[in-house]
Specification:
The protein is built from no helices and 17 strands. By secondary structure, it is mainly β. The protein has an 8-stranded antiparallel β-barrel with strand order 1-2-3-4-5-6-7-8. A 4-stranded antiparallel sheet has the order 10-17-15-12, with no helix packed on it. The chain is elongated. The N and C termini lie far apart (46 Å).
């Protein structure tokens, strides 16, 4: 068992072959090598992961998960087999899958499930306010307002699955 810290959050992680146990929850995992990155599918959700060269993989390394940078640190032994332990913060998937090309759109940076929406159209928000909570691989991620503004639209619903790039909230 290892303590893994990603994006400032710490998790208890153990790798058991094609399964990863995170904070007591077990997820089936597959890892597919691509050109320049790996695709890690955990709990049915695919993630595009860019890792440093094998000889540079150590605690404190920088990785990219779905094009978002994260620092990964760990203490202890992760286990054998594939070790897809990268987690991401922030993304959601709309039922219809609206893609971003909308002014003021706050978009999903990774696939996930919307578990709670904290804002309504017409509501004023400040930079850093939590707009909604997105679950990715059973981890809750806060999606925050990138700037002060007013909520124009919330095109997702609680329980909706969203893909990377889907519009979660539109601010004006």
């Amino acid at each position: 068992m290892a303590k893994v810290t990603i994006g400032g959050r710490t998790y208890e992680v153990e790798v058991r072959g094609d399964r990863v146990i995170v904070d007591g929850h077990e997820y089936p995992v597959t890892v597919r090598e691509e050109s320049g990155y790996v695709t890690v599918t955990a709990g049915g959700v695919p993630y595009r992961v860019q890792l440093p060269p094998p000889d540079q993989r150590q605690s404190g390394m920088e990785v990219q998960v779905d094009y978002r940078p994260f620092k990964v640190e760990w203490e202890g032994r992760l286990g054998g087999g594939p070790a897809p332990r990268e987690r991401t913060a922030g993304s959601a998937v709309a039922a219809g899958g609206a893609k971003a090309a909308v002014k003021g759109a706050v978009t999903a940076q990774i696939s996930g499930k919307v578990v709670r929406i904290n804002v309504k159209p017409g509501q004023a928000v400040a930079k850093g306010d939590v707009l909604l909570i997105l679950e990715a691989m059973k981890m809750e991620n806060e999606i925050k307002a990138p700037a002060d503004g007013t909520v124009k639209e919330v095109p997702v619903a609680e329980g909706a699955r969203v893909a990377e790039g889907d519009v979660l909230v539109v601010l004006e």
